[in-house]
Design goal:
Largest interface: A-B, 36 and 37 residues
Membrane topology (chain B): Multi-pass membrane protein
Protein name (chain B): Branched-chain amino acid ABC transporter permease
Shape of chain A: globular
Main location (chain B): membrane
Distance between the termini of chain A: 23 Å
CATH superfamily of the largest domain in chain A: Response regulator
CATH architecture of the largest domain in chain A: 3-Layer(aba) Sandwich
Order of helices and strands of chain B: HHHHEEHHHHHHH
Keywords (chain B): Amino-acid transport, Cell membrane, Membrane, Transmembrane, Transmembrane helix, Transport
Oligomer: heterodimer
Number of strands of chain B: 2
Number of domains of chain B: 1
Subcellular location (chain B): Cell membrane
Strand order of the largest sheet of chain B: 1-2
Radius of gyration of chain A: 22 Å
Chain lengths: 412, 293
């Protein structure tokens, strides 16, 4: 496929060079197959359906529409389509689907891919096929660490950003003593390490930490233990996600830990989680958000369009999918070709501001996309006046502080 | 001391769920010789049904506690008549596969309608407080769950021990051939007993809705532990499953609180105990070696 693209490109260049007077060969001849195909590979039936899933496909379609509207007749091509597949959060399925997207469906760039293990598999495929890959919903820092490669970009967030944002900021704001519970698998263990480092780095103390079974429906042992620890923790940091998080929060409220002076901080939480738990159950909880739909007028305008398309407000993953698709198309437009190496060159080191990326920059060293992050707190039920407007932003964490410095493990 | 009592109480509460589920499984196995793999799915339906009653019809928790088990019991009887019964004469493996398949179907139906994210369900307003036991206090709802489960288990025990129906069921459970030989129509009781077992799973599901995540997979994870409980107590032994249910709840709670340096030990304790019991007493702690038919 690439070979053909190269031939097509060189022929087009030759014609353009010799032809002289003729109409500048329409630029789409520099595109493989004369078109651009984006691939959204994510969970479309399981636990991550709501937070990204099929609505991210719609977000990508919105980006395509905006790109076309902006460039009109000057757009590199009018033929931009989206392919989509369900990887069921399984690495092996992600692997096959990604290869199929690149090879058979002529996908130029794959987007999204939640679940770290699946995210890493797709990075390998992107490297092997030399095609672009924007990971959005995966959390592992390995994507920009030991598993980084030239064609992979990590867009929205990672475990370091979450732990650093919440752990460091909350500690600095006075909650010195932490009790951490984490699910006993890769994501949870990663999060616990990053969190403990962030808390102690900011002058806090980990007074206790416990690995919990995964999945687990009964957290009462840990919740009973929390207020009895010495010194008493100011905050319970939970690294649970999905159904486990729901279990933990319900039981946190049952045991009235907030009333006992133990606040709640959540490692990773999406808007859709707050929606399903109800803001009342989470009132006062702090967490790090990569983007919030009601942060300013620009975000809100996007969220209004998204609501019209999907019936719900966007999570940060939806907004990030939109942004990544848009920035990819812009890079192709600027490069005048969809040749992966040329597009990577366009993207590397680029400063970007768009609806999702504030003070954004695509780091050339490790392909980490850095941008402002936000420390968010769930509003008390009485202050929730609008559906989906559940949090207030306590603090904007500047892009340069929000993410870790490029890792020495990453050799692009 | 107060911490120990708290953990003990907590263990009894999670044991209550295990006991209710194990009791239903045991009654069904005893009467039908069917290992009902779909038990966790029925538990899930109990919780989802509770949520559905509130959101679709505005019916609160207390009515759900009555309506959901009855509805699930009826549904269970229909399942027994239409699906389980026709396979009863074949190898037990067929019903095992049937109920396993049924689990997947039920889970996916709920998934289709509600997705996999958990649905919100609050604690009933009368029970949001805590109860002060002097040495420690405990969420009121959990106190209610434990009392309700204990009452339910005692009621079942009384029903089985002191009524004519109960005696027939016990006889049919423990010596099915002999009971038949005495001219008792065991078949008549098969469908209601199956429905009853499912209704118990429904009760556990309703009780779970306010304190656990309500989603299609909530039963899938729990049912594995319940099977371990039933094996430990002795398949088909009514008393055994209840005792093992509460016992395992305690072991888990104590393990998690006192072996917290070794989370793996606490998390696998149930299965280690199961393996040990199987080696020592293959029929379970309270089970009886099956009499050759």
């Amino acid at each position: 496929m690439r070979k053909r693209a190269t031939i097509v490109c060189s022929v087009a260049l030759l014609l353009a060079g010799c032809g002289g007077g003729g109409p500048q060969g329409s630029s789409d001849s520099k595109l493989s197959g004369d078109r651009i195909v984006l691939g959204v590979l994510n969970d479309q039936s399981g636990v991550y359906l709501a937070l990204s899933g099929t609505n991210s496909v719609k977000a990508v379609q919105m980006a395509i529409a905006d790109f076309k509207a902006k460039h009109g007749g000057d757009a590199i091509t009018d033929d931009i389509t989206v392919e989509t597949a369900d990887h069921q959060n399984k690495p092996d399925i992600a692997n096959t689907k990604a290869a199929e997207m690149y090879d058979r469906l002529s996908v130029d760039a794959i987007l999204d891919v939640p679940t770290s293990s699946a995210a890493l598999k797709v990075a390998d495929v992107a490297k092997e096929k030399k095609k672009l890959y924007f990971n959005i919903s995966g959390a592992t820092t390995d994507l920009t660490g030991k598993s980084c490669n030239k064609y992979t970009f990590h867009y929205a967030y990672d475990t370091y950003m979450l732990a650093n944002g919440t752990g460091k900021t909350v500690t600095e704001q006075g909650a010195k003593n932490w009790y951490i519970v984490y699910p006993n698998y890769a994501f949870g263990q990663d999060m616990e390490k990053s969190f403990s480092a962030a808390v102690t780095g900011a002058g806090g103390t980990i007074v206790g930490k416990d690995a919990t079974p995964f999945p687990n429906d009964n957290f009462s042992t840990f919740l009973l233990k929390a207020p009895t620890l010495n010194p008493k923790p100011d905050v319970l940091g939970t690294m649970q996600a999905g159904g486990d998080l729901v279990n933990l929060v319900k039981q946190y409220n049952e045991f009235k830990l907030r009333e006992k002076g133990v606040d709640l901080s959540v490692g990773l939480m999406f808007l859709t989680d707050i929606h399903s738990l109800t803001p009342a159950a989470l009132a006062g909880t702090t967490y790090t958000d990569a983007w919030y739909w009601n942060f300013d007028a620009e975000n809100r305008a996007f969220a209004d369009r998204f609501l019209k398309e999907t019936g719900s407000r966007p999570t940060f993953a939806h907004a990030a999918n939109y942004s990544a698709a848009l920035q990819y198309l812009e890079a192709v437009q600027a490069a005048g070709t969809d040749d992966a190496d040329a597009v990577v060159k366009q993207l590397e080191g680029k400063d970007i501001n768009d609806v999702f990326l504030r003070n954004g920059k695509i780091r050339a060293e490790d392909h980490r996309v850095i941008h402002d992050a936000y420390l968010a707190q769930v509003k008390p039920a009485a202050e929730v006046t609008e559906d989906w407007d559940y949090v207030k932003i306590l603090k904007t964490i500047p892009a340069a502080e929000a993410f870790r410095t490029p890792s020495a493990d990453c050799k692009l | 001391m107060s911490a120990f009592l708290q953990h003990t109480f907590d263990g009894l509460v999670s044991g209550a769920f295990l006991a209710l589920l194990a009791l239903g499984l045991s009654v069904i196995f005893g009467m039908l010789r069917v290992v009902n793999f779909a038990h966790g799915a029925f538990y899930m339906l109990g919780a989802v049904g509770t949520y559905l009653l509130l959101t679709e019809f505005g019916i609160p928790f207390w009515w759900a506690l009555l309506v959901v088990p009855l509805a699930l019991g009826a549904f269970g009887m229909a399942v027994e008549r239409t699906l389980v019964h026709p396979l009863a004469r074949l190898d037990p493996l067929y019903n095992f596969l049937l109920t396993f398949g049924l689990t997947l179907v039920l889970q996916d139906l709920v998934k289709l309608r509600y997705g996999t994210t958990s649905s919100p369900y609050g604690t009933p307003s009368a029970l949001t407080g805590t109860v002060d036991f002097g040495l420690f206090d405990f969420p009121a709802y959990r106190v209610f769950v434990l009392s309700f489960a204990v009452v339910a288990c005692v009621a079942v025990w009384w029903l089985l021990g002191h009524t004519r129906v109960g005696m027939l069921v016990r006889a049919a459970t423990e010596r099915p051939e002999l009971t038949r030989a005495l001219g008792i129509d065991v078949g008549r009781w098969v469908t209601p007993v199956f429905g009853f077992g499912i209704a118990l799973a429904g009760v556990a599901g309703v009780l779970a809705a306010p304190m656990r995540a309500v989603n299609p997979l909530m039963g899938a994870d729990l049912v594995i532990v319940v099977f371990a409980v039933v094996v430990i107590g002795g398949l088909g032994s009514i008393f055994g499953s209840v005792a093992a249910g509460f016992g395992i709840g305690l072991v888990q709670a104590w393990g998690e609180s006192y072996l917290d340096q070794w989370p793996i030990v606490a998390q696998t304790s149930v299965f280690v105990i199961m393996a040990a019991v199987l080696l020592w007493r293959p029929a379970g702690l309270f089970g009886r070696e099956e009499a050759p038919a």
